[in-house]
Design brief:
Blueprint lengths: L19 E5 L5 E2 L2 E2 L3 H11 L3 E5 L6 H10 L9 E3 H12 L4 E5 L2 H9 L3 E2 L6 E4 L7 H12 L3 E4 L5 E2 L6 E2 L1 H12 L4 E2 L5 H11 L6 E5 L2 H10 L3 E5 L6 H4 L8 E3 L2 H11 L1
Parallel strand pairs: 1-4, 1-13, 4-5, 6-7, 6-8, 8-9, 9-12, 13-14, 14-15
Antiparallel strand pairs: 2-3, 10-11
């Protein structure tokens, strides 16, 4: 299939045909705090080859440094500059839309740090934006304040639409659940930055200085990772080590460029090529 410029895309039948990689985290590299088989080998091969890659996550709670440390604890070496979060993508978007603006923020350090780093000021007084991200400390007072600010005209932004997030004990309410409270009370829907919005992918490509024509998005969800990659013009690889199964993937009106059991298959291809 040709790319948007009419040029033929590189064939994706083999991992060596890809020049840069975007990798979802949960379900691709880790599952329930444990590395997925092949993840360590795959990351090592990318480092050995000098292949650019970013690990993507819709979770906006943690900074890059935090996530790098958590992955290292789980046995995966991912430098912090190889991590891209929905909080960082949100900061990039806001910086382009309204530089050095103000925001009322519901979220954790990953989001507040990203906004601080682009020169944003947190304010409860006529802020430009209400920005909602992942949090484990829900506050009725802050949600009430967000409802009133959105009702008064503040622009409504959220890092990602995920209604739940994973934990060892089971699903947890996530950003999409909190924004639903505000939306129900105000009649206003937020603009979501994270996957499946291709903005998340495009911001990662710019960070990586990579081209969509030679980049692959590897994910375990058809409804976020694969569709975001497709809409951003990337090759897409669905791994069956997470949420989507081969059967459920067939129910969607779109399909990935390739389906593999896990990143172990991609690692084996790179190993064979070396």
């Amino acid at each position: 299939m040709p790319d948007s410029h009419g040029h033929p895309r590189p064939h994706i039948s083999h991992a060596t045909h890809i020049e840069s990689w975007l990798l979802d985290m949960d379900g691709v590299l880790v599952r329930e705090e444990h590395p997925i088989d092949g993840a360590t080998d795959f990351l090592q091969r990318l480092r050995d080859r000098g292949t650019p890659f970013l690990v993507l996550t819709n979770n906006s709670m943690y900074t890059r440094r935090d996530l790098s440390a958590r992955l290292r604890w789980n046995g995966l070496e991912v430098p912090e500059d190889h991590i891209w979060t929905s909080a960082l993508a949100t900061a990039v978007f806001l910086d382009a839309q309204r530089p050095r603006g103000t925001a009322f923020v519901i979220g954790e350090v990953g989001l507040t740090t990203a906004l601080h780093d682009i020169g944003y000021t947190q304010s409860e007084n006529e802020p430009d934006y209400v920005v909602v991200g992942e949090t484990r400390s829900y506050s009725f007072d802050r949600i009430t304040r967000a409802v009133r600010l959105v009702g008064e005209g503040a622009r409504f932004i959220a890092t990602n639409p995920d209604p739940t997030g994973p934990s060892l004990e089971g699903p947890l309410p996530a950003t999409g659940a909190v924004t639903a409270l505000i939306s129900k009370a105000t009649g206003r829907q937020p603009y979501f930055i994270g996957k499946p919005n291709p903005l998340m992918i495009r911001s990662a490509l710019r960070e990586l200085k990579a081209h969509s024509e030679t980049t692959a998005m590897v994910g375990d969800r058809m409804d976020t990772d694969v569709v975001a990659g497709l809409e951003a013009g990337l090759h897409t690889v669905l791994v069956l080590s997470g949420v989507s199964s081969a059967e459920s993937a067939n129910q969607y009106p779109y399909k990935p460029s390739r389906v593999v059991g896990s990143v172990a298959e991609l690692a084996a291809e790179l190993i064979d090529a070396d």
